[in-house]
C-alpha cells in the first residue's frame, strides 16, 4: 500500500486541523527534523525559528508543523499537516505507518518457562528468557531476549520488557542481630505489573517483602533503573535512566523522575510531581511540585540558593 499525506491526516483525525499542499504526495519513510528528505514524513517543533535555513531541505516532504510554519512555507512544494502538537502527531504517524514489526507470537525454543507459569498465546517470549513459578504473562506482552521473571511475577496485557531486565529478585532488606550481623528479611511477596507498561533494558524490579511491588498501568521505566521492594509506581509515571526508587517508596500518578534521581525509602512523590536531574529525595514531595538538588528542595528554593552562593563567591 502506498502511504500518502492524506492517509496520514486521516489516521491522525482531529489532531490535524488541515492539510496545506499536495495531499496525494507519497511517503516512503519517516525522517528526523534535522535530516529530512523528499518523499519522507518529518516535523518541526513550534518554537523553531530558522525556517530559511531548512526551507530547501523540506521540499518534497510531508511536514507535520504548526500553522505559523505552514503559512511561512506555503508555495514551496511542501505538504504541511497543520497541528498544535507536531511531535505528538509525528509520533503517532510513525507508530502506525513506519514502526518496526512486532516480534512473533509464542515462546522461543531457547526460553525456559516453569510448568506452573501462564503465558498468553498472543504474547512473545524471546530467546534465553526465564519465567519462574506462578508467573503470568498477559495478552500481546513482549519479553525481549534475556529477560528474567523470577517466581510470582504477574504481567498484564500489552507490556514490553526489554533485554537484560530482572523482575522479582529479592530486595535489599536486612536487620542487624545481637551479634551485629546482617540477617535477611524474607521476601515472600511478588511483583504486579499492570497493562500497557514499558520497561527498559538492564533494569531491576524487586519483589515485595510481604505484599507486592506494584507498577501501575501506563508507567514507563527506562534503562538501568532500580525499583526496590514494596515500591508503587503510579499510572503513567516516568522513571528515567539510572534512577533508584528505595524500598516502600511511592511515585504518584504521572510523576516524573529525571535521570539519576534517587528517592529514599518510604518517601512519597505526589501526583504530577517532578524530581529533577540527579536529585536526592529524602522527604515527601507534594502533588505537582518540582524539586531539585541534594537533598531535594522546591525548584524556586534551589535556584535561590544557587544564586545566593554565586553572589557570595563573587
Task: Provide a descriptive summary of the structure in words.
The chain is of the alpha/beta class and 314 residues long. The protein has two domains: 3-97, 3-Layer(aba) Sandwich (Udp-n-acetylmuramoylalanyl-d-glutamate--2,6- Diaminopimelate Ligase, Chain: A, domain 1); 165-300, UDP N-Acetylglucosamine Acyltransferase, domain 1. It contains five helices and 37 strands. The strands form six sheets. The protein has an eleven-stranded mixed β-sheet. Strands 9-12-15-18-23-26-29-32-35 form a nine-stranded parallel β-sheet, with no helix packed on it. The chain has an eight-stranded parallel β-sheet with strand order 10-13-16-21-24-27-30-33, with no helix packed on it. The longest helix is centred in the last third of the chain and has 14 residues, at 299-312.
Which consecutive residue ranges, at least 5 long each, have pLDDT under 50?
none
Kindly estimate the percentage of residues that lie in beta strands according to DSSP: 25-35%
Structurally, the number of domains stands at 2
- What is the approximate shape? flat
Strand order within the widest beta sheet: 8-11-14-17-22-25-28-31-34-36-37
CATH fold annotation of the largest domain: UDP N-Acetylglucosamine Acyltransferase, domain 1
Notable characteristics:
single chain; 314 residues; Udp-n-acetylmuramoylalanyl-d-glutamate--2,6- Diaminopimelate Ligase, Chain: A, domain 1; UDP N-Acetylglucosamine Acyltransferase, domain 1; nine-stranded parallel beta sheet; 5 helices
Amino acid at each position: 500500500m502506498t502511504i500518502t499525506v492524506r492517509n496520514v491526516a486521516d489516521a491522525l483525525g482531529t489532531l490535524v486541523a488541515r492539510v496545506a499542499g499536495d495531499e496525494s504526495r507519497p511517503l516512503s519513510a519517516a525522517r528526523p527534523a534535522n535530516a529530512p528528505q523528499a518523499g519522507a514524513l518529518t516535523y518541526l517543533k513550534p518554537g523553531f525559528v530558522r525556517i530559511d535555513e531548512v526551507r530547501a531541505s523540506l521540499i518534497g516532504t510531508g511536514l507535520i508543523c504548526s500553522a505559523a510554519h505552514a503559512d511561512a512555507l506555503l508555495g514551496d512544494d511542501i505538504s504541511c499537516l497543520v497541528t498544535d502538537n507536531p511531535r505528538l502527531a509525528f509520533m503517532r504517524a510513525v507508530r502506525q505507518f513506519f514502526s518496526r514489526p512486532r516480534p512473533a507470537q509464542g515462546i522461543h525454543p531457547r526460553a525456559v518457562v516453569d510448568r506452573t507459569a501462564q503465558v498468553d498465546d498472543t504474547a512473545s517470549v524471546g530467546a534465553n528468557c526465564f519465567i519462574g513459578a506462578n508467573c503470568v504473562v498477559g495478552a500481546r506482552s513482549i519479553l525481549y531476549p534475556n529477560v528474567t521473571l523470577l517466581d510470582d511475577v504477574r504481567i498484564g496485557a500489552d507490556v514490553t520488557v526489554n533485554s537484560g531486565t530482572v523482575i522479582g529478585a529479592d530486595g535489599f532488606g536486612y536487620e542487624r542481630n545481637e551479634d551485629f550481623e546482617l540477617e535477611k528479611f524474607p521476601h515472600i511477596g511478588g511483583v504486579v505489573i499492570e497493562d500497557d507498561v514499558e520497561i527498559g533494558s538492564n533494569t531491576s524490579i524487586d519483589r515485595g517483602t510481604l505484599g507486592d511491588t506494584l507498577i501501575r498501568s501506563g508507567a514507563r521505566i527506562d534503562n538501568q533503573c532500580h525499583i526496590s521492594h514494596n515500591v508503587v509506581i503510579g499510572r503513567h509515571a516516568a522513571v528515567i535512566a539510572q534512577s533508584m526508587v528505595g524500598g516502600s517508596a511511592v511515585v504518584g500518578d504521572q510523576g516524573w523522575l529525571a535521570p539519576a534521581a534517587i528517592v529514599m525509602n518510604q518517601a512519597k512523590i505526589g501526583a504530577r510531581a517532578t524530581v529533577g536531574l540527579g536529585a536526592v529525595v529524602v522527604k515527601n514531595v507534594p502533588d505537582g511540585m518540582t524539586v531539585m538538588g541534594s537533598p531535594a528542595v522546591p525548584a524556586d528554593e534551589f535556584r535561590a540558593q544557587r544564586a545566593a552562593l554565586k553572589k557570595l563567591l563573587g
